[in-house]
Design brief:
Strand order of the largest sheet: 1-2
Largest sheet: 2 strands, parallel
Radius of gyration: 17 Å
Distance between the termini: 31 Å
Helix content: 40-55%
Order of helices and strands: HHHHEHEHHH
Number of helices: 8
Strand content: under 5%
Number of strands: 2
């Protein structure tokens, strides 16, 4: 999906196309399949998030994102390219082995409190998804000594920026 997001960002910001035109043009020309695209309802957030990450963390990307663990799904195939351009290591879980990515599975369980398994994410408004994300990242965790993921992330960023 990263390739698609890059495509949209390029045509949105450089060519002044709408997000709808960017997404559907990529399908019409065959540059991307439906499996490689992001729903146009969540595309604005994806573009903003990617652009924000790229801008905000580009200088310290390798300090912040040392590893990424993910499924073997085709939607994550582009992550392998990230290893080529950064020091971030990509780890793929073994098929049907949820214990390889316990934290991801725990997070999925939290999300399922709001979006039941089998429910189409397209049935939810962007603001609903953002609210779920905010709730998850603001939830204190035992594994984090009852701090929130947001607090820990900010603390780590502060340390990285102080060391620079």
């Amino acid at each position: 999906k990263a390739g698609f997001i890059n495509y949209v960002i390029k045509h949105f910001f450089e060519d002044g196309r709408s997000l709808d035109v960017c997404a559907n043009r990529s399908l019409a020309t065959g540059e991307f399949s439906h499996y490689q695209t992001v729903c146009t309802r969540i595309l604005p957030a994806s573009c903003r998030l990617f652009k924000c990450f790229k801008k905000q963390y580009s200088e310290h990307w390798n300090d912040i994102f040392k590893t990424i663990t993910t499924d073997n799904g085709s939607e994550f195939a582009d992550l392998a390219n990230l290893e080529q351009v950064s020091k971030t290591l990509i780890y793929y879980a073994h098929p049907y082995t949820s214990c390889d990515k316990g934290t991801v599975e725990r997070h999925n369980g939290l999300i399922r409190r709001f979006i039941p398994k089998g429910d189409c994410i397209n049935n939810y408004f962007l603001q609903q998804i953002i609210d779920i994300e905010t709730w998850c990242n603001s939830l204190p965790r035992k594994i984090l000594a009852y701090h929130t993921p947001d607090e820990i992330f900010e603390r780590e960023l502060d340390q990285i920026y102080q060391a620079a």
